[in-house]
Amino acid sequence: MRNVKVMGLISAFAACACLPSAMAAEADAATAEEAVNNVRAAARFLHDKGSAGYAEFNNKDGKWVWKDSYVFVYDCRRNRMMAHPLRPDLVGQPIMQITDNSGKFIFRELCKVGSEPRGGWVEYAWQKPGAGKLSRKLSYALAADISFTTGIQVSAGIYDEKLTVPELGKELEKMFDPAKYPAL
């Protein structure tokens, strides 16, 4: 009986000791709401700046990189990465043939859901910044309205093992409530 109490105390102490690092990890993780808000802001930015705004998205120390996430810009019509703050090797390269480790064509899916009026989410495997390994990523994609150009989309993602695309879709519907969130 005494051993059970000691083990319980050790477990409780271990849980308390781990709690600050778990909270720190959560504090460094981007949320779905942040991803949607930053993508919407990025679409507005490109609407105002046009293609001259791409350079801002290539800055790894710029405002489009936060916590463990970032905004990237791509052209679905021309099959090109236009800006990526953490993978400059992808900028200017074809994107439609890029697959994750399960064979999912990532940008084909992003272009499909991003062409919907309110955008959408896609799940795939991608390397999380600083992790050095593939992680489950859910990215939100939305078309950007730029003069004389069609097919430009912006995306940002979160790394989460539990959330599903349908759950994120329901949250997205709430975020388009004009009483709570400004229109694009």
Query: Mind describing the biggest β-sheet?
Result: 6 strands, antiparallel
Give the count of helical stretches: 5
What gyration radius follows from the Cα positions, in whole Å?
Answer: 19 Å
Strand content: 15-25%
Strand segment count:
6
Structural class label: alpha+beta
Q: Low-confidence parts, pLDDT < 50 over ≥5 residues?
A: 1-24
**Fraction of residues in helix:** 25-40%
Average the pLDDT over all residues and give the rounded result.
Answer: 86
The helix/strand order is HHHEEEHEEEH
Principal-axes shape call: globular
Distance between the termini: 62 Å
Explain this structure to me?
The chain is an alpha+beta fold and 184 residues long. Helices cover 37% and strands 21% of the residues. Strands 1, 2, 3, 4, 5 and 6 form a 6-stranded antiparallel beta sheet that branches. It starts with a helix and ends in a 9-residue tail after the last helix. The model is unreliable at 1-24 (pLDDT under 50).
Summed up, what is this model?
The chain has about 180 residues and is of the alpha+beta class. About 35% of the residues lie in helices and about 20% in strands.
